[in-house]
Amino acid sequence: MTQTGDCMKKLVIIGFDGTIADTAPGILYCMNTTALSMGYTPVAHDALYGVIGVSLEQGFMKLYGMKEDEIEYAMNQYSKLYSIKGEEMILIYDGIAEALKKLKDSGVMLAIVTQKNEKFINNMLAVYSYIGELFDMVCATNVEREMEKTDMLRKVCEDLQVDVGEAVFVGDSYVDAVAAGEVGIDFAAALYGWGFRSQEDAEQYNCKAYLNSAAELEHKLSAL
Questions:
Q1: What's the pLDDT at 7?
Q2: How far is it, in rounded angstroms, from Cα 211 to Cα 193?
Q3: What is the mean pLDDT of residues 100-111?
Q4: 9, 82, 184, 211: which one has the fewest Cβ atoms less than 10 Å from its Cβ?
Q5: How far apart are CA 220 and CA 186, in angstroms?
Q6: Which pLDDT belongs to residue 224?
Q7: Which pLDDT tens digit goes with each residue over 194-213?
Q8: Helices (H), the chain
């Protein structure tokens, strides 16, 4: 692939929650509403910091103490509610669309890796088509396929035929950082999301860049 820009990477993989969009309000609303209907006490927004990057199933168990035999019901209720309300309660971060377009125009391939259900992420990217159209690949979960983030990162690199050394993963949580490390992909920490609370939180994960805002994406990654 011929590159016309300064970015030394061929592929930029980025998360969705907390990196492209602030989806926390919708996620928390749907989780709390589901939990309340099952007799559990709702949690405050700050509680999300404890489950950033984990699967929805793990989130229900950790936040509310749900038992394994309750998770299927909770997931079904959450999915119904999220498709009605949660998808609407998102905010695209300022500057992210422009930064992604600059990377795309420079010849860099773009991909999303998310543990959000592919139905939800596809619906959101269809609504925000000016962002969705920039991506070469979107790797998400579905009912038949539960994938760890490490598996998703490897699949994206394999499908787009890019060596892991020529890719960078942008995420906002320790789960993202650990997955990148296990796969051998460089990691850039999105400090503006709702995973890392500070640069100090991220420094232990051998990050190659620290993004204080979504607008810094193209500038910081071009230096890698």
A1: 54
A2: 10
A3: 96
A4: 184
A5: 13
A6: 85
A7: 888 899 999 999 999 999 99
A8: 24-37, 56-64, 68-84, 96-105, 118-127, 129-132, 149-159, 174-183, 199-203, 217-221
Q: What is the CATH number of the domain that holds 173?
A: 3.40.50.1000
* Main-chain dihedrals φ then ψ at residue 63, nearest 5 degrees: -75, -40
Task: Give me the number of domains the chain comprises.
Answer: 2
Structural domain ending residue among the three candidates 88, 104, 133:
88
Q: What is the largest CA-CA distance in the chain?
A: 57
H or E element at residue 147: none
User: Is the pTM higher than 0.85?
Assistant: yes
- Pairing of β 21-22 and β 91-92: antiparallel
Q: Phi then psi for 222, rounded to 5 degrees?
A: -65, -20
- Per-residue pLDDT reduced to its tens digit, 52-76: 667 888 899 999 999 999 999 999 9
Q: Tokens 């993004």 — which residue?
A: 211
* Reduced DSSP (H G I as helix, E B as strand, rest coil) percent helix, strand, coil of the chain, to 5: 50, 15, 35
φ/ψ region of 53 (left if φ > 0, alpha if ψ in -120 to 50, else beta) reads left
- Domain of 72, in residue numbers: 24-88
Number of CB atoms found within 10 A of residue 209's CB: 19
Residue 133's Cβ-count burial label (10 Å; 0-12, 13-18, 19+) is exposed
